Amino acid sequence: MVEHGDIRVVHRGGSKINFRKPVITNDSRFLLCASGESVKVFSTSTEECIHDLRGHTDLVTGVLIKPSNHLQAFSCSADGTVRLWDFTDGILIKTYVIGYPIFSIHASPHHEGVIFVVTPMQGDKRSGELFQLVAVHLPQSGDQLVEARELSAVLTGISSNPAATVFGRGGEYIASANGLQLEVYFFKKQKAYRFSLKEDNKKGGKNTFTCVACHPNDDCIATGHEDGKIRLWRNFNHKKEYTYSTLHWHHSAVSSLSFTPEGTNLLSGGIESVLVQWRYNQENQRDFLPRLGAAITHIAVSPDGALYCTSHSDNKITIIQSCVKVSAVIQGLVKGESVGTDLMIDPRSKSLVLNGKPGHLQFYSLQRDKLLYNLDIVQQEYIHESGLQQFEVVKAAFDASGNWLATVEERKQKGAELELNLKLWAFDEQTQSFVLNTTISAPHEAQITGMCFSHATDSQTTMLVSTSKDGHFKAWQLAAQSQTDADEGPSWSCDFVGAYHGLVPECCSFSADGSLLAVSFQEVVTVWSPASWELLTTLSQPPKAIRNLCFGRLSCSKYLLGTTDSNLLCCWNLLTCSLEWSTSMDVSLLLADPLSENMAAFCCQAGCTDLFVFKPSEPRPLFSQKAVCSGMVTRAVFAPREEMLESCEESSQWLNRSQLYFLTQYMDLMTFTTKTEEERLMASSKQLVIDDSVAMTPFYLLLGKHRQQQQGGDDPQSGVSAERTPLPQGSVAIKELLQTPAHVLPSTSFLCSMFVQSLLISVTDSREESKHAEEEMESEKEEEDSEEEIESSRTRPEQQAAVGGGEAAESAAPAMTKAQVRELRRVKKLDHSWLAGLLDS
Amino acid sequence: MASFKPTKIQVYPKLGEKVTQDTLYWKNYKAPVQIKEFGAVTHIDFSPVAPHNFAVTAFTRVCWHLFVHIYGPFSQEPVKTFTRFKDTAYSGRFRSDGQLLVAGCEDSVVRLFDVGGKVALRMFRGHTKAVHVTDFTSDRYQILTGSDDYTCRLWDIPNSTELNTYQEHTDYIRCGVTSKLNRDLFITGSYDHTLKLFDARVDRSVMTMDHGQPVESLLLYPSEGLLVSAGGRYVKVWDLLKGGQPLVSLKNHHKTVTSLCLSTNGQRLLSASLDRHVKVYNTTNYKVVHNFDYAASILSLALAPDDESIVVGMTNSILSIKHRKSPEESKEISGQQRRRPSYRVFVKGKNYVPKQDDYLVSKPVKQHLAKYDKQLKKFNVSKALDTALETWTRHRKPEITVAVIKELDRRGTLNNALAGRDEQGLSQLLNFLIGNLVDPRFAPVLVTAAEMILDIYHSVIGQSPVVDRQLLRLQELLEREIDYQQDLLEVLGMLDTMFASALPRKEVPCSGASRSNGLAQGEASTSRAQLQAT
């Protein structure tokens, strides 16, 4: 991004998490998903983001657990690299440079040391749509950065969609669908079979393949189609004698298919947002999980089959227990095609408010980068069907105190009247959410172009002004509670209808104290007094229509600023009712900072957007930055900071009280940060450790403390190169020992001898090694640990020897597994004796 | 997994009267007890002492037999009947201790009865024409009478002698009232349009007020500072302390007001009229707060102490008695509509207090869905429309049917839901359209549905006489509606021209300082649209 002094434009939050199929780890504790240029690791139980694996320089296009080591994961990216990560600790292990943009990644446990990636076809330059599946032999090397040049094409002319290519039973064959063709490649025979379908069947359904899934231990391929059918292909190792059966439930395209690990069930999903579970071989038995919120884009199943997870088109991942019950929802910032409502800041929660799911407003916390909640505005069942016109929230406004929210929803159907609803929501202190107060159906005869609340916080009445294409603007007021119907609270009603020469009003704006209302009618700005509804004055700057209107704040409240279509930024002085100054700028968006006099103007010039920050009273801009981003910025907002920055540099002072967020053409949320702020953020992120790997047992307290002590002492820089702390493995061993049922454990006598052994002061390293081996026998699961862990456990004996030399039982050093077991035992025994003593007395 | 969101039923602004405290209070009477009397009931008077019997004065035109009945407050049979009249009896009134009763008569004799006895205790002779007004003074020893011979007289009960005669009115005296606070003051109203306040200590009236119409009824406020008179279509309130200044003139009836009455707490004034209505006014702002309708013209009206019952006598010789519902009864009636499970069912298991180490498993709340919503949830669109078109829903709650049609339209499946109906189903649909198409609340939705129906079924027109007849009716209805709309638009245009010429053109202050402001002159449209907010 462009540097300007110390102010930078940065991406802030809300990245896409539904781009590719998420992956659940073997122990079902973590969920990995590609998110922009990084891979995010979520906890499946707490929904928190634990790690953000950063390293790729372009869009991450696929994530995969390494088949030979379930604690490592591959990720591929359009930057032409495949990276290997240790996702539990968030460390990049290796980078394989492939050299071509990669669109998806596949691997099978039966193909050791080989991964399959989808890259664009090299030879065919004229058609960029063709892709090939390439087998990459990963060279064994200790280096961090490895060049993988050993490529061999397996299949050509396949689809770039990762769901359209899948490995079959035991990695014997790979199935890939593209368009109307299904291709199955057998590795042993080195032979490919192609099966084609006709474009349309008799009833006009489209047969195009959308996704493929292979049964894990049966020769069966399931394919999803554009018309909602699922075909189960069998006997496909012959060119002619293949058969298929058809399942049909979905009414539109099947977007994802997945078999459960045992192959007993087939899961399918599509735009209906219903997860359908088909019994394999008893396909007429189906289970449904309806109303998941938005169209299903991907389905993933955990390796043990305990969890399913579905990604949805509204940037959401739902984690479902296999008993078809939603257990967790990971929700990112919902991005539609357009933000009808402007970006807004909820004055109470200081969260960003914009269109969310269809018919909802989302409240997104900018500080925590988390969706707080969705407010259902339309309150109607959303029908998941493409091409259906449904109610959309097009305008929303908050009043200054956050007590009232006004929303406009509209639905335009072909050949039917426009349906408009104006809804007013009151904030309910008890439930801490907005409650519908008044619904006004058909508030205007045509679309509403602008809406704003009166800003005055001290005034008795709250007022809302809406402008519409029907040539009127209306003022709505909270009617006093009438004495007759005491059971109903106060409601809103129309107070005034204004018009000016039959022109169409475009923008409206209240002055800071609420004493003036400016409404622009094409090229004329009319200024009204809301108290008496008198037309006070008109201001105009022909020849083009007004685009934006904005009153100055605080000391500049006497100024009214407007931008016109003819690239003019005008500033009127309302005391003299004359033009103070004007300048020629193509301003696409003008907005005022509510906490200072500053105003920000986004200007569109030559495909790039420039930002100017200025005070209406001063001719010189406070800050300007060329080429903030490409394309036009149409939505931006000033968000107040939680704590003020103390920046003394003149160019960054405007960021002291509030922060400027804006949406680019491609719906990326960006903001401006200063260097000092970034440093502070970095410092705080280092301290922030989310630890949920240890269950909340009585022993957690003991262990957790030690961990914290250790982390406090650990220097983060030196931690990578220096010896790694062996504690996490130790804690797992303890947990295993204590959580396994008693009848599975080795006999007490066996443990006792070990215990006694451990009490002895160790003399030689060789003895410790043998003991370590015993411990390994105990915990079988640890066998599959990564190299690093084995390394780290090797360092353990030395440590143990060093500390164990000092003291025996009392030492309780966190590094020593045995010592801790011992200590716990001792505590337990003590407890019992004490209790017994109490009972006796 | 979000739950199914039920169809939103649009709440339309309620037409008709608003439910107020007054409506609730005055509606809280049982169905009237109707008793057939022998003639038009001319006067009703409640005994001031418990058990608050009331005397009803009525006559029959056939046999000229005259009665004063005394009814118990809750019985439907007369407690006592006085029949010793030779001619039509008028104005049977109780004394303040409820022991004596006085009544005038067409034969100009005033009779005084003991409530316990049958025979008249005293007969006051002296009037020359029918006596329509009788009343006891507040000292209980004198009687005021007013007669068609234009005189009103004071009589002494113990001596049975005439004390004084006032000959100031120039027409029949048809109403009069004595002061309850001062034994010497009384007021009479006459057909000569005047009200006169007399003081027994002087020989003439001390105050005269002009009502403007023949006065039919008089009423003094308990404070006796205000006097209410009824005559013609008017009810007027006079301030006696300000020398008979008129305070309010109410014209809420469209026929002669015959009777006045005050509620026990003095907060409400009731007036009965020949137009068959009883109106209840608020005495602070004199606005009508409630209205009772009766079957025939009302001649007399009385309210029991504590508003326990309203008794109305009508020209068709029916006496209508409405008793107030007791609190239990009013509850009982609402409870009778549907038998609900007993209280025990609801508290079952609820009073169990969880112990400290109990693990609380919350019970899933079952979402209740209406029948049509259940069908909509399963995407059974035709069945959903069928359920919404059930007879009860269609007639009683057309908004539900319309809401379901709207929802189907939103889902894009209205066409499927409307199609494939047989003659009966189609005629049901058309019936609904005929009934509700021109309702402005439902028109936007139903017009779409009607268009679809015509599109779908235009091929079967002419096959069923029932459907054809209904389609013709629909066409007729629409044509009529178009005519109405045209007429209304014409009226609107006329009004616009009238307003435009009537309103003065307002100059908008255009700042002279602003050189750049080329445009000026805006008309502020001052029309205030009050949109119904729901």
TrEMBL record, chain A:
Might you name a Gene Ontology BP term for this protein? Answer: positive regulation of transcription by RNA polymerase I
Q: Which InterPro entries match?
A: Beta-prop_WDR75_2nd, Quinoprotein_ADH-like_sf, WD40/YVTN_repeat-like_dom_sf, WD40_repeat_CS, WD40_repeat_dom_sf, WD40_rpt, WDR75
Query: What Pfam family does this protein match (any one)?
Result: Beta-prop_WDR75_1st
Give every WD repeat-containing protein 75 second beta-propeller domain span: 343-667
Alphabetically sorted, this entry's keywords are: Nucleus, Repeat, Ribosome biogenesis, rRNA processing, Transcription, WD repeat
What ranges cover the WD repeats?
53-95, 202-233, 247-288
> Can you name one GO molecular function term for this protein?
RNA binding
Q: State where composition is biased (Acidic residues).
A: 775-790
A GO cellular component annotation in the UniProt record: small-subunit processome
Regions of biased composition (Basic and acidic residues) lie at: 765-774
Q: Where in the cell is it found?
A: Nucleus, Nucleolus
Q: Where is this region: Disordered?
A: 706-725, 765-820
Query: SUPFAM superfamilies given for it?
Result: Quinoprotein alcohol dehydrogenase-like, WD40 repeat-like
Q: Known Gene3D superfamilies for this protein?
A: YVTN repeat-like/Quinoprotein amine dehydrogenase
Which portions of the chain have biased composition (kind: Low complexity)? 798-815
Q: What is the official name of this protein in its record?
A: WD repeat domain 75
In its UniProt entry, the species of origin is given as: Sparus aurata
The opening ranks of the lineage are: Eukaryota, Metazoa, Chordata, Craniata, Vertebrata
TrEMBL record, chain B:
Entries under PROSITE patterns matching the protein: WD_REPEATS_1, WD_REPEATS_2, WD_REPEATS_REGION
Compositionally biased intervals (Polar residues): 513-534
| Localization in the cell | Nucleus, Nucleolus
Q: Does the keyword DNA repair apply?
A: no
The record places domain U3 small nucleolar RNA-associated protein 15 C-terminal at 351-497
Any one biological process term the GO annotation gives: positive regulation of transcription by RNA polymerase I
> Region annotation Disordered: residue ranges?
511-534
> Amino-acid biosynthesis: present as a keyword of the record?
no
Identify the domain of life: Eukaryota
What's a single GO CC term here?
nucleolus
Q: Where are the WD repeats?
A: 124-165, 250-291
Q: Which SMART domains match?
A: WD40
UniProt keywords, alphabetically: Nucleus, Repeat, rRNA processing, WD repeat
- Give the quaternary structure: Part of the small subunit (SSU) processome, composed of more than 70 proteins and the RNA chaperone small nucleolar RNA (snoRNA) U3. May be a component of the proposed t-UTP subcomplex of the ribosomal small subunit (SSU) processome.
Q: Main role?
A: Ribosome biogenesis factor. Involved in nucleolar processing of pre-18S ribosomal RNA. Required for optimal pre-ribosomal RNA transcription by RNA polymerase I. Part of the small subunit (SSU) processome, first precursor of the small eukaryotic ribosomal subunit. During the assembly of the SSU processome in the nucleolus, many ribosome biogenesis factors, an RNA chaperone and ribosomal proteins associate with the nascent pre-rRNA and work in concert to generate RNA folding, modifications, rearrangements and cleavage as well as targeted degradation of pre-ribosomal RNA by the RNA exosome.
Question: What name does UniProt use for this protein?
Answer: U3 small nucleolar RNA-associated protein 15 homolog
Origin organism of this chain?
Sparus aurata (Gilthead sea bream)
